[in-house]
Amino acid sequence: MKAWVVYVNGHELSEKCMRKTVDSLIKYKWDYEVVSGVTPNTLDESEFPYKDLPEGRLESFRYNNNRSEQKKYKIKKSCIYNNLRFAREVVKRNESMIFLEHDVVVTAPPPSDIGVTEFCFLNIDGAFKKPSVLADKPRLVEWYNKHPHRLGVTPFPTNYPLKYYKRSRYHGYNMTPGTSAYMLTVKGAKRLLRVAESYGLEQSDFILNEQTVFMQYIYPSPVKFQKINPNLSHGL
User: Fold this and answer.
1) Which of 24, 128, 147, 167 could be a cystine partner for 105, CB 3.0 to 4.6 Å?
2) Mean pLDDT throughout 3-11?
3) Residue ranges of the domains in the chain?
4) 185 and 113 Cβ atoms separated by less than 8 Å
């Protein structure tokens, strides 16, 4: 199974992190491809010429009165383009693939897609620990520490506390704890692309929710964060 490693070309820290990612992929014999990600400077809005999801988080950046928040709009839009490009590639190759951000390392041989229906998160062990920003959310940390995680691939449960909170069509649904590492099947990729076109663009970790795709995660995780998180989705 092919893994896409997405990084920011020309950004020193991103390139440094990406090299660590690649070293770990080689060590554990993953099949991978390094991909230069979309940035506000390279964003071509005609590639996915869809409206923003009404009442979504992406739209809120666009119309925010705070200039620094407005600047995040094209950064967040670039991120969703990266994920949509990936989904398009999954459909093109007609096989499951793995999406990896530049600030992770793999710690085990590549997982298979056996038992994965549409979307499988691969970094649940690190999602609620530093350097993840979700580590600052006590309720999420408590859930992870107390939940009896089953070995292998399992659905996100109903008591999972990270819910979509904006007043859009996704309100109240489970959402992915980031897009650091996940597997997408052809079925899941087609659903993601169809939802983006039909209902509008949304921040990447918000559009990946249980109304868009059937959400699962694998435990223990075959991926973890590097110690340094560039956190470029908040500013380049």
Assistant:
1) 24
2) 97
3) 2-40+50-230
4) yes
User: Are the CB atoms for 30 and 108 separated by under 8 Å?
Assistant: no
**How many beta carbons lie within 10 A of that of residue 37, not counting itself?**
23
pLDDT at position 67: 83
- Across all residues in the chain, what is the average pLDDT? 95
Closest to 98 in 3D by CA, of 15, 179, 203, 191: 179
- Find, among 82, 72, 98, the residue nearest to 181 by Cα: 98
Phi, psi (rounded to 5 degrees) for 75: -65, -50
pLDDT one-digit tens code per residue, 192-226: 999 999 999 999 999 999 999 999 999 999 999 99
**What's the angle, vertex CA 76, arms to CA 87 and CA 43, rounded to 5?**
70
Of 206, 212, 211, give the one whose Cα is nearest residue 233: 206
CATH of region 2-40+50-230, choose from 3.90.550, 1.10.3470, 3.10.150, 2.30.30: 3.90.550
Q: What is the pLDDT of residues 43-91, one digit of tens each?
A: 999 999 999 999 999 999 999 988 888 889 999 999 999 999 999 999 9
Residue 73 contacts residue 40 (beta carbons within 8 Å): no
Q: Is the entire prediction scored with pTM above 0.90?
A: yes
What are the strands, taking DSSP E only, across the chain?
A: 2-7, 31-36, 97-101, 104-106, 119-121, 152-155, 181-184, 215-219, 223-225
CA torsion 30-222-37-57 (nearest 10°) is 160
Q: How far apart are CA 210 and CA 208, in angstroms?
A: 7
Half-sphere exposure of 45 (CA within 13 A, CB side): 11
